[in-house]
Amino acid sequence: MSGIGASAALALVLGWVVFALTGLVLAPSVAAVIGAVMGVLTVALARETVAVSGLIAVLAPFGVMLPALAARHMAVSLGAEVPGFATWEILVFLALYVGFLCSAFGVIPADLYRYGYAPWPVGGMVLALCLYAFLTGNWFLAGVAVLGQLFWVLGWGSSNWFDMVLHVALVPVAVVVLLLRLL
Questions:
Q1: Which of 128-132, 154-158, 174-178 has the weakest average pLDDT?
Q2: What share of the chain is helix, strand, coil (3-state, %, to 5)?
Q3: Mapping DSSP to helix (H, G, I), strand (E, B) and coil, where does residue 159 land?
Q4: Cα(136)–Cα(122) distance, rounded to whole angstroms?
Q5: What domain count does the chain have?
Q6: The domain containing residue 15 runs over which residues?
Q7: Within 10 Å of residue 26's Cβ, how many Cβ atoms?
Q8: Are residues 16 and 103 in the same domain?
Q9: Coil, helix or strand for 22?
Q10: pLDDT band at residue 158 using 50, 70 and 90 as cut-offs
């Protein structure tokens, strides 16, 4: 992603964090406005600071999924109809993604990450995700897969498609969602 894209993604993710925290005590509509304003102001006014540059360095590449989930959570809290994921889907994703990360770090002797550089495997994965999204009615997932492929093809970010549709921060996000569903 360009510097503008990374800044926009960071503003959205920071706004989401502020939204989630203020939403504990305020109405969703008020929390959304405060989150949006704080996210944009933080990135716009402090873009050249060590803190914001450090967040971009640590969290980049943002890809599509993390900002999309942030926007989805805020939109649903405001009453929009955006499909989500079942508990079993999150559990399967978490198991597969942790295995994928282990593979990428060399813990498991299979280099799955390399398939994210090649057009044919990426095309197959996007088609598989779109087929799954069609069968489950989850247009959100199809949108993320296709938008991630579009950004990947255009060279807006990482040269690996997995970086466009996944983010290591999804592991703690998935764990928190699962824990909240238990309560």
A1: 154-158
A2: 75, 0, 25
A3: coil
A4: 21
A5: 2
A6: 1-81
A7: 14
A8: no
A9: helix
A10: confident
How many CA atoms lie less than 13 Å away from 49 in the CB half-sphere? Answer: 10
Q: Residues 129, 145: contact at Cβ < 8 Å?
A: yes
Judgement on whether residues 91 and 150 belong to the same structural domain of the protein: yes
The position carrying tokens 């949108």 is 143
Do 77 and 87 sit in the same domain of this protein? Answer: no
**Position 75, amino acid:** A
Average pLDDT, the chain: 92
Output the six-digit token pair for 133: 């999204």
Distances (CA, A) of 71 to 48, 74, 94, 118, 144: 25, 5, 21, 29, 12
One domain for residues 34 and 93:
no
Tokens linked to 134: 């069609």
